[in-house]
């Protein structure tokens, strides 16, 4: 009997982490990852924040410790108002309570660490670059993917890790148009600066990262300043701004970075701007070339994360992209990978894979496991999205209102929430997630105890 074949579309954070879990939990499987990017540019740039739930997954893969010295590790977020008055210090993470600190790090470093593990692992994981998935078709017994270069491949199962604009998602939802990504009308704009350039304006020496809230959307509702490297000297700064669809002149933003800097200057540094000197100086002193923008998209979440015949499964942004305001997209992708890998290992081994048979997930028992996994992940997503929404509302400047009274109410609410530790408690729900323990709920303690990632 041929070894079981698994195809993964996309070698982003979800595709690589999933392949590593699968190769340990289903060691006989052959795993091929197809990626549209060239091997010379395997990752996107920018920085991300990884909370304890994300880091726990990376720890299970043996990657976390190598990342600690590569980024900025912290426990609390300092909340200030636009005048630089202290509002609250919010516990985001911490070894004593959550086992891990939070880590701000360049995305490409996390990606390379995963990639190195894939390459060093003497496992049958193969990455095929320059391959753009065009369509996917499943039968009762196999799934076939066709690429734009005319090549096709067939496997027992295929997992969509191809991000928010997923082609695979379109191939198996009933009405693909309903699941097209929609621009939310908000975008993040930001750049980079060094601590030495702006530290003198941090008058009370507030601990970083700083999250500041302003009175009105039109004059900037929020401004973040976040270290992201091991020395704590390299900072990223950004704001989330409403930018209606009609203003979709984004080609200009890419071609000429002065346009982005100008938007930031008009928003934060104009005459009469209510913003503090640290924010103004950060914008003024920053290099124009360092500016970037990220429009926020959303798509409808399908009822389940697998196809009718259970041969196509989706995870990460392909299944449930969310705006980055809550900093949980990658964390969700990692949680998906680990929980799915355990679910597939148990489903396949129960179905007799250990006796050498092909992967067959299209059985009542296989479907039952996938359905429980999918329901669990959708529930988790909803809880995290709720928190995300609260974070974006806070960043909107007076929760979207321009009234001074509303702004005062918001500032008090933030202060009170910080005092009562409510924001911290929300974090506990997010941070304490442990994929293996969670998966035991639908796979059974005994079944899951057989598996080790060593
Ligand atoms: C500005 C911004 C800030 C963020 N900040 C955070 C943060 O602080 N914390 C956090 O946890 N998350 C954050 N996120 C979210 C996080 O980046 C994503 O959730 C995460 O990268 C999703 O990983 P993925 O592998 O599912 O998708 P992706 O990273 O999008 O990877 C998809 C891969 O599939 C490939 N691909 C696409 N289409 C095809 C095709 N047709 N054929 C073959 N290959 C294809 C792509 O090239 C890519 O390599 C942020 C996102 C943004 C935009």
Which key features would you list for this structure?
alpha/beta, D-Amino Acid Oxidase, Chain A, domain 2, seven-stranded mixed sheet, five-stranded parallel sheet, 40% helix, globular, binds flavin-adenine dinucleotide, FAD/NAD-bd_sf, transmembrane helix, FAD-binding domain-containing protein, FAD binding
Q: Which SSEs are present, and which pair or pack?
A:
Elements: E1 5-9, H1 13-25, E2 30-34, E3 47-50, H2 52-60, H3 64-67, E4 72-74, E5 76-81, E6 86-91, H4 95-98, E7 102-106, H5 107-120, E8 125-128, E9 133-138, E10 143-147, E11 152-155, E12 157-160, H6 167-172, E13 182-194, H7 195-198, E14 210-213, E15 222-227, E16 234-242, H8 250-255, H9 257-268, H10 277-285, E17 292-298, E18 312-314, H11 317-320, H12 329-350, H13 364-395, H14 404-420, H15 422-431, H16 435-443, H17 445-449
Parallel strand pairs: 1-2, 1-12, 2-8, 5-14, 12-18
Antiparallel strand pairs: 3-7, 4-7, 5-6, 9-10, 10-11, 13-16, 13-17, 14-15, 15-16
Helix pairs in contact: 1-5, 1-12, 2-12, 9-10, 12-13, 12-16
